[in-house]
Amino acid sequence: MTDDRQLAETVLALVGGPENVSDVTACWSRLRLVLRDDTLHDDPALTALDEVAMVLTQGGQFQVVLGARAIPVSKQVRALLT
């Protein structure tokens, strides 16, 4: 199992890098990202990660379903964007 920071770094790389993320939020199970360019995310690589249950786009957000890790990973993503 990767730690939250490593998972955040991996997710960021697979959605087009930090420069492609304009907003980050989370609910209890989903990491929610607003992407500048919605064509850059690599869905097969994301869903191949053991920690990722699925990915989807909904309500203008790219969502990565992580279960209970969504909130801790979102905090790490925010830290990496600053």
UniProtKB/TrEMBL annotation:
GO terms for biological process: phosphoenolpyruvate-dependent sugar phosphotransferase system. One of its GO terms (molecular function) is protein-N(PI)-phosphohistidine-sugar phosphotransferase activity. Gene3D superfamilies: Glucose permease domain IIB. Residues 5-82 form the PTS EIIB type-1 domain. The active site is at residue 27. Coiled coil: none annotated. Keywords: Kinase, Phosphotransferase system, Sugar transport, Transferase, Transport. This is PTS transporter subunit EIIB.
